[in-house]
Each structure stands twice: as structure tokens, then as C-alpha cells.
Amino acid sequence: MKQLQIDEQTIADLRFFGKGDDSGIYEIYNQTITRGGEALLEFMFRNPLSDATAIRNRNNLIRQFAELGLSFPFEATSFDMAEKYLADIPGQTRDTTRQKLSEKDLQQGTTAVITLLRQAKDFISQPSVVNLTAYATERAAIALLLDRPALLPALTETLHGKLSYAVTTAYDQLFSVQEHHTIKQVLENIYLLDVYLTVAKVANTRKFVFPLVHDKGNSLIKLKGVFHPAIANAVGNDISLGGDRNVLFLTGANMAGKSTFLRSLGTALYLAHMGFPVAALSMEFSVMDGMYTTINLPDNLGMGASHFYAEVLRIKQLAMGLSKGKSLFVIFDELFRGTNVKDAHEATVAVTAAFSNCRNSVFVISSHIVEAGEELSQMPAVGFSYLPTRMNGHTPEYTYRLEAGITGDRHGMVIIRNAGILEVLKNGKKPVNT
């Protein structure tokens, strides 16, 4: 299955995984019941797809589960017990492990596996699940595993009262040796189910939408009401890029919301390539080969690289991919902020102009160099949006809503004055009264 080309910089920029007390996007989606489901969800986050068919299949599967509103059909305590029991099995023999397991452990473990198998059988036999076209392949895989003759006694076991020692050891031999691989495969399918049902629940709870997926080659990104999923009462914005207009030049004063908008857009497109629902009113996109963001690019002290040189290396990396005909989605927040204004102006115009000629890719560039807009406005492939600031007396207020055009808003000095920094520097720190 072909994967979207990404890197750790992009994952860090979009804040998928939290640090310390700050939770990430992953935590919003991670309401999984099983440990295996949690690990699988993280794998999906780190490996978005770049295959239209695979993305559509996962998208449709989760959407159909969301429409049904099904819950995870397994008891959490019983499932945990089954996982623990099976995790103790090293392979085709368990002579050493059996010595560590008490009769009670064996009895509880085998009973939990029997319960798991029966619940799996019941789930895939439900008419609503049988009629789920998008789940047909996965359902058939589970059914084939459960139809193995050796598992018939477990599926018909009544479980009235405690299993005898003889029955327990027979099932232990069945699950740990004879059908060990089969049981593990059933678990893997249940982990997938856990992820599907979890993400479907997130879609319903948060009113996320399932994007319309187009094949590669159109370079289309169209969103209505896209917002950041981790921000309460976030403002939604509309954006349409691709084809004849493949570059967006974004301006706005400090604190106007540029970086948040860029993260909202990047997060939506990334999740869409996972086949997941996104935080928007509607979305359609064409599948890309890769996605790269530069929102919080650090200096590389290890190689003695300044922020500016780190930017140059980043652009060179992208240029190599673009030269091979790759279809990329690229975000640059405050392009060339690591150098002087004159060089930043010239470099911004030159690089943006070069990007505009790569029509099978899409670029979003934010900048404080609003003067570059006059030259870029001569290029039909470049569109312009800004996030405005409204002054309420001496206090800047932000709408966080995109408007067409370029803004010259600069309110840095207003913010500095409002913070009283100049007065402190001029008058010195006042003595504390004792």
C-alpha cells in the first residue's frame, strides 16, 4: 500500500503527538479500547496513505460504521485478560511459560479467549454488519478464521460455571499451540475493528466530515469551514486551491491566526490521506505523493546551521522531489524569516514564482513581506488571502476569518506598548513596597 511521503518535521509542525501536558491531534482520535488498537492507530498516524483506492476504502468503511453508530462489541476486562494470556505464549511451545501460569491464570485466560471468539462470531453475524459493503473483506477474513473446525468446541462452549482442569488444559493446548496463529489473526482483525469504531465515534461526536477523494493528478484541495480540531469554538474558513491557482500567499499581523490556519489546513489534508474524517463542513481533495510543512523550523545547532540555512536546505529537499514530478502539498509559515528584509523579499518572490510553475503541486506560503505581493500579483497561479485585524481603540481584535487580498496590518508596536515594556525599560523596575 503506497504511503504519503512525510517527515518528522511535518508531524511535529502539525502537533499530532502531544508533549508534556499538551495533548496532540492523535489524542482526539485515540479512544480505542484495546492496546493493539491504540498501537495500530498510532501506526496509521505515522503512515498516511497515497493510494486513492486504499484511502476511499478506509474512508467508506469508517463512514458506514459512523452511520450505524455501533459500539465496540467486546468486554474490556475480558479482552484485556485474553490479550495478557496470549501475550505469554512465546511460540509453538510454552513449556517454560506454563510453569509460570497458575491453574487460575490458565482458566481465566482460556475462558477469556473463548468469550472473545464467541463475541467476534456474534458481531460479524449481525444483519447490520453483514450488510456493510465496505466491511465485507474484513468480515469475510474473520469468518474464515472462525470457521476452522478446531475452533468449533470453543464457539459452542456454554461457559456455565468454571471450566474443569482437564477442559482448561485442552483449550490451553488448542489456543497456545494448535491454533495460536489463528487466534493472533483474529486479534489483529479486532484491533482494526477497534480503530474503525473509535474513529467513527469521533466523527459522530465532533461532527467531523468524510472527504471526497479524487485520483492523483488534479492537485485539488477544497474545504468549507475548515477549523482546528483542538481549539474550542474555532472559526472555520473556506479555501480552494489547485489547477490554475496552485499557490496561496497568506498575510496578516502577528497573532492574527496565520499559523493556526496553516495547521488547520495541513491537519485536514493529512487526516484525509489517512482516510479519516476531518474538522470541516465539507472537503474534497486529490491524492498527493507527499506533504511537507515548515511552521516551526528550528536551527540545526548540531551542524551549525542557522534558521535561514535550515530553510534553504528545506527548500532544496522539496525542489529535489518536485524535479522528479512528485505531487506535493507544501506549507511555509513566514518564509525566509531567518534573513534580512531585502534578501527575504527577493527570495520570497523568486521561490514563490518557481513554485507557481509546479502545477501538479499545491503551496501555501505565509509572509510578513507584503511588498512581495505586488510582484507576485502578476502571476495568475498565485492567489492572495489575509487574516485581518480590527482596531478597537488601541486594542487589536482578530476575526480569524480569511479575506481575499493582501493586508499591510502591522500591530507589533501596539502590542509592545500595550504590554508596558517601554515604560518598564524607561523608568526601571519599581521597588516592591514592604
UniProtKB/TrEMBL annotation:
InterPro entries (alphabetical): DNA_mismatch_repair_MutS_C, DNA_mismatch_repair_MutS_sf, MutS, P-loop_NTPase
The record's keywords, sorted A to Z, are: ATP-binding, DNA-binding, Nucleotide-binding
- From what superkingdom does this record's organism come? Bacteria
Which processes are annotated in GO (biological process)? mismatch repair
Q: Which residues cross the membrane?
A: none
**Single GO molecular function:** ATP binding
Indicate the segments forming the DNA mismatch repair proteins mutS family domain, all copies: 245-433
Q: Does this entry carry the keyword Nucleus?
A: no
- Would you tell me the protein name for this molecule? MutS domain III
Q: Which organism is it from?
A: Chitinophaga arvensicola
